[in-house]
Structures are given as C-alpha cells and as structure tokens.
Amino acid sequence: MALIDLTFAPVVQALKDCYCTQLQLVSTPVADCCIRPGEVAYGISLTQDECCSGLGWVRVVNWGAGFPGPEEQPTRCLPTQWRLDLELGAVRCAPVGTAETLPTCEEWTAAHNLMMEDAMAMRQAVACCFATGDPNRLVSFGEWQPIGPEGRCVGGTLSITVEVLPCDECEEPAP
Predict the structure, then answer these.
(1) How many domains are contained in the chain?
(2) Which among 172, 127, 175, 167 has a CA at the least distance from the CA of 8?
(3) Is residue 156, in this structure, part of any structural domain at all?
(4) How confident is the model over 143-147, as a mean pLDDT?
C-alpha cells in the first residue's frame, strides 16, 4: 500500500488549484500550470517551449517544525504545527528581437505587464482563495522575485510560508 500524505499534499494541491484558476484570468493565460518538484527548470524541446507557452507552478521549498520560524525543541510528539515553505512561479517568453534589431521598449513593456499580471495572480491565489478557505490557517507572505531575462524567459516567483496543523501520521487513511 502506498503512503498517503495527509499533512502537506492537500495544502499544496489547494494552493495549486487556486493559483491555476487565477492564471487563467490574466490577459494571456498560461498553457501549463502544475506542481513541480525541486528546482524548476523551464523545458524546451524541438516542438515545445514552456516559457513561450506560459508556465505556472507551485513547489515545496522546504518544511519543518514551528510557524513562522523553526522551533527546534526535543519532543516525543509531533509538533503542534508545521511550517510549509512554498513557491509560486510563472515564466513567459522574453522579447528577443531579430538578428538586425533589438526588442523594442513596447515589447519589453508588454512582457513586464504580463509578468505583473502573473504576480497579481499569485497574490490573489494566496490571499483570496487559499488563505480565506480556512480562516484558521496562518500564511506569511515572503518576497516576490523577478526571473530573467534568462534564455528566452522572464517571470517571477513568490514565496509564502503556511502553517499546517499536524494530523496523526501513524493512522491509516480511511478508504
């Protein structure tokens, strides 16, 4: 029987669902929105370019005992609360120009505006549909950081820390 994460997986899935919904409301919706493990690498192949089609993600950065910061105290019990650090991110196609001309200011402004729409989708996902879904859930906003231009990609990430109350991880989940 496979282990089922009843502590963190539902939180990550709920945030991903909210965020992906918000990313569909921007002027140019992303083609892909998913949970990504580890560091996010933007895929490019002969037929696909995740930056130019638009990619949104949620990933677990780390987790530990205590909220909002580590409270490392010896115990024989589970912590009273977990700290789950998450990242929301989005990348888009950067203007590249041609062999003869550089991208115009208007092209850079359009890329910036779309990047800021994605940033707004991140804030709205966390504040409007994720945090309000559970009024007892504590959420701490970190910083939004721009990405790129790097290759053909520009975008940004938002870090958040979420309080997750422990469940009994030794009980088997109901069928």
Answers:
(1) 1
(2) 167
(3) yes
(4) 95
